[in-house]
TrEMBL record:
It comes from Siculibacillus lacustris. Residues 184-285 form the Peptidase M20 dimerisation domain. SUPFAM superfamilies: Bacterial exopeptidase dimerisation domain, Zn-dependent exopeptidases. It comes from the Bacteria. The active site is at D89, E149 (proton acceptor). Keywords: Hydrolase, Metal-binding. This is M20 family peptidase.
Length: 383
């Protein structure tokens, strides 16, 4: 390791207790998506830790989702920055902390968002503090803490893309896999809200006059599910359906929520074209189907992570642990940076699992080593 890398590693080595304290503090703040007050409270806790070390913090308020927070350690020589990333929202509703606060059993911590991804937020904060403590690097290092990843980053995407454009690399501190691996590939994803309009009628007296929106939707669901192709990695899932009024009324309305996952950016337009063709089919005469597209996550394609992963693997070995890369079907903000052509690596937070459940856990003994490996990797990008 270089002298700078050694200094970063050594600065982080005794920080476990501090890292655990910050993790406990932010886990014990409800910050479910759309809870702007809670999400901003988490942001202020992170900002306070950074500002105490003299790190410049910029806030971008957003009353709907919670604001984005940007922190930077300037580079000694300028040049393209490195971007550290993390989201502050969780999937848990307000009040969860009151019944299930931060807790620990030995080296394992529990609590809402402890792995996904408040542990990663702590790693980002301490990596940035370490870089500041050693006098900075040759290039700027920016940390971006967004507010709404769990619902597709409707406000966060634009901020991420602005900060990532022209960056030399992007590192997303989503939780390390339960296996201990980091994430070298992710699927992209999009949600569609489908609505079908038909014609209501009494199902006993005037059945023939009705045009069943539910019947039309059922046919379309079958066709949409048939688009799943495991060989190409494309999957479709209708996870929510609604419709109708009463059992004895031909339904004039039906709706569905569709989750679509894909491996490559280039696949999305073709998938949507096939969905549009399915919706245009006259499955039940005189019914009309439309859809609204929700936020789109871009995939993290393996070619964008390969070189960074080799650097990270070498850094991890120097720190003292072995690591492999892993693909996941889950989406994350790293897809946005990768789609811009920025080398990107994900899953760099502490090891954790059971995300989005009441059993969510995080290994506290991985906080320091994962921060060290990330810091050493970032420092090595000066080469």
């Amino acid at each position: 390791m270089t002298p700078t890398a050694i200094a970063l590693k050594d600065w982080l080595a005794p920080r476990r207790a501090e890292m655990e304290a910050l993790l406990a503090r932010i886990v014990d703040i409800d910050s479910g998506s759309r809870d702007a007050v809670g999400i901003d409270a988490v942001g202020e806790a992170l900002a306070a830790s950074l500002e105490a070390d003299g790190i410049a913090v910029t806030r971008f308020p957003n009353a709907t989702w919670g604001g984005a927070i940007r922190a930077e350690v300037p580079g000694r020589s300028g040049g393209a920055p490195v971007l550290l990333m993390g989201h502050r929202d969780t999937v848990f509703p307000k009040g969860t902390v009151a019944t299930r606060p931060f807790s620990r059993d030995g080296d394992t911590a529990f609590g809402p968002g402890v792995a996904d991804m408040k542990g990663g937020l702590v790693v980002d904060v301490f990596v940035l503090r370490a870089i500041k403590a050693v006098g900075g690097l040759d290039f700027p290092v920016v940390a971006l803490f967004t507010a709404d990843e769990e619902v597709g980053s409707p406000s966060g995407r634009a901020v991420i893309e602005r900060e990532a454009t022209g960056a030399r690399a992007a590192f997303n501190a989503e939780p390390g896999r339960a296996s201990g691996n980091v994430v070298t590939g992710r699927k992209g994803g999009v949600t569609l809200d489908i609505e079908v309009r038909g014609r209501a009628a009494h199902s006993g007296v005037a059945h023939a006059e009705g045009r069943s929106a539910i019947g039309a939707l059922a046919a379309k669901i079958t066709a949409i599910h048939a688009l799943t192709d495991y060989a190409t990695g494309t999957t479709t899932n209708v996870g929510v359906i609604r419709g109708g009024r009463t059992h004895n009324t031909v339904a004039d309305f039906a709706a569905a929520e569709v989750d679509i996952r894909f491996l490559a950016v280039a696949e999305l337009d073709g998938i949507l074209a096939r969905i549009e063709a399915i919706l245009a089919e006259d499955d039940v005469p005189d019914t009309v189907a439309t859809y609204t597209r929700g936020p789109v996550f871009m995939p993290l394609e393996a070619e964008r992570s390969a070189a960074l992963f080799e650097r990270y693997r070498a850094a991890a070995a120097a720190v003292g642990f072995a690591v492999d890369g892993e693909f996941t079907g889950g989406c994350a903000d790293s897809g946005f940076t990768a789609a811009l052509g920025v080398p990107s690596l994900c899953g760099l937070g502490p090891v954790g699992g059971a995300a989005h459940t009441e059993r969510e856990w995080c290994r506290l003994d991985t906080l320091v080593p994962r921060a060290q490996a990330l810091a050493v990797t970032v420092a090595g990008l000066a080469d």
